Amino acid sequence: MGDVTSAVAGFSGLRPEGAGRKPLRIAVVGAGPAGLYLSILVKKRFPEAAITIYERNRADDTFGFGVVFSDATLDIFERYDPESYARITQEFAYWDDIAIHVKGEVHRIGGNGFCGCARATLLTILQERARSLGVEMVFQTEADAEDFDDHDLVIVADGINSAYRQRHSEHFGTSVDLRPNRFVWMGSTKPLDAFTFLFRETEWGPFIAHAYQYERGRSTWVFETDPDTFERAGLGQLDEAGSAAFMKRVFADVLGGHEVLTNRSIWRQFPMIRNARWVRGNRVLLGDAKATAHFSIGSGTKLAMEDAIALYEALVAEAEVPAALARFEKGRREEVEKIQHAADVSLVWFEHVARYLDFEPVQFAFGAMTRAKAITYDNLRLRAPDFVAQMDRAFAEGVRRQGFDVFLDKPAAPMFQPLRLREMVVPNRVAMSPMCLYSAQDGVPNDFHLVHYGARAIGGPGLMFTEMTCVSRDGRITPGCAGLWNDEQEAAWTRIVDFVHANSGTQFCLQLGHAGRKGATKPMWEGIDRPLESGGWEVMSASPLPYFPDSAVPREMNRADMDTVVTDFVLATERAARAGFDMLELHCAHGYLLASFLSPLTNHRRDAYGGSIENRLRFPLEVFSAMRAAWPAHKPMSVRVSATDWAEGGLSPEDSVAIASAFREAGVDLVDVSTGQTATVSRPLYGRMFQTPFAERIRNEAGTATMCVGNITTPDQINTILAAGRADIVALGRPHLSDPGFTLRAAAWYGADGIHCPPQYAPGKDQIFRNSVRDRADLEDLKARGRPKTRAELRLPAATVAP
């Protein structure tokens, strides 16, 4: 069709003011919620605009059953078009609870504010509203978005299988991630009074149902299962009626005698669609054509209609189409990507639901509620206190089964429950992450280190890690790295350990490592991982691959080098034992020496130490086994791993589980799960708690205790992670840099008065505990007062749903 940008070159503006302007001509391809709602909003604001919607199906055709919105979304609709909002709210069914059915138990959590409506009803309401405003609609017409070069604006809203997007996929930068689980949309005559998740274990494997009522006597049922269960159950050989009958049997205890209904109910895989660009000339993608969000967070129709609102706002704000489209894409992208990220996290939880089916039902339900990170421990505690109290008790019961005499009637929050690793008892589950300080002289820690570690230990974390401490001079990252290869260093560390033990209840772990090819570099604040301009030393690695192109090329290690490194680690281990550390960690992450053996990006060896994951593990396991033999048997050891390289061709999820399993079998007590920093090609997906899913997978598949790290900043997040069974202990770095008393303040907030405090600081502890009782009560009262009533709580007459 050629370049379409010329189609808008003569357009003088969108604003209705002024004389002599031509009416705006808009073609909309697709009469779904996105195209209809945009047409309504634009036609209201620009009555002279000529808007035509083209739809391949009949006006009364619809596929699927119900749609669902939150109260917050309905509030937005009320602001933008009260007329369609009024019609919609007359038709919607409202509910306040989420009900989770698992292992014969039902857990109900209120305060959610959901509403459902038949998709056909929603489309009819929007069609009638658009028609009343003068929008032209042409049905049973296969329109091509290429055919409107004489229009000012073309809205491409033709859904997941958009022909225009597929034709120009290279321009749009389209990526389609076809998820492995199989799902099917069906319906039922079964009434429901909550948004309902049902989990069933069967002879074939687990099945999930996402269900909600959308009108009197009708509910949507989305059935989902993993590909192996789908295959074993033979669902691929069944027709719609056969599949409906099968699912009715699986969920017969809830469905009872109610029918399961079909409407083009075909088993399929969910496509997570992203586009690097949404605009091509005066054509713009909208709704599912632009981006999809998994049904488990109920956002498909919401996403589409809020797209329409954002595009409308851009058209109002800008005088010309190109500027409006640019404004829409720039302003809307962040919110869409946030929703997609939440959907990604949610769908992965459902894809791996088998990991959690051994959990206690209340913990399973808690994990389901918090899976997408939007809902947290404190959030649930505010609106579902009985449910969180059940969760706290179940967590405490698990701790008691480990031999701890903890309270069950009024249990401490999960982060203040103890943890046993061999004979070491960690008094709470907050850890201070290892963080390089680059402040040592010739590897000797000094007064800065004493104050740093001493102050943070007094602040109350259950476990504290040193920075990576190097086992040899040539094993340092920078000239400022701490070491443990001589007597002076050992004496300096002993001084610090003694202070921590004398003045806190914190357990102290030494992290030992060797920089490998990332050695002989500048301190972080002078250029992280950049090579020294002078005063460097020879570096070595699994393979002769420099970190940056201008970094030193490392020597490929031979057997003699390996023997020397093993000896260095053992000698440092013996020094650590004499210094009195409570725990020892081996650093096998972030591209340092031992990590360079584990990752296929950095290990290109052709001998017994390269190739398969078993071979790549061989040398790190040699080092660990030698350390374990030298370390006191009653004291625990951990290993830090990078669970992913965030790069194509790097460590796979299966690799990370295999690595953790191998270390567990070798005697590791805790796997410290980090990610990345292996190679410069890494492209991490940052976000809140972004590395926690890797710790969760290793914990629940490798069967080992894990510690999670990575952009975890609040006590609320710590409790959420622990209660959901995603890790056994939670490490924070930067929050401890800015607040040495982080854990003490959290203890005051949650009323965990058993936290250790030296007598010199006892008055401060007493004061913060007294103040926190009042402050927490005031905050929770403020939140409770400020939370708007859900429509279900307001009991709108239109919301009445027959039982």
From TrEMBL:
Residue ranges occupied by any NADH:flavin oxidoreductase/NADH oxidase N-terminal domain in the UniProt entry: 415-747
Keyword Oxidoreductase among record annotations: yes
Record-annotated FAD-binding domain positions: 26-338
Cross-referenced CDD domains: OYE_YqiM_FMN (cd02932)
Molecular function terms from GO: FAD binding; FMN binding; monooxygenase activity; NADP binding; NADPH dehydrogenase activity
Record keywords, A-Z: Monooxygenase, Oxidoreductase
InterPro entries: Aldolase_TIM, FAD-bd, FAD/NAD-bd_sf, OxRdtase_FMN_N, YqjM-like
Entry-linked Gene3D superfamilies: 3.30.9.20, Aldolase class I, FAD/NAD(P)-binding domain
Keyword rRNA-binding among UniProt keywords: no
UniProt-recorded name of the protein: Anthraniloyl-CoA monooxygenase
Organism the protein comes from: Methylorubrum salsuginis
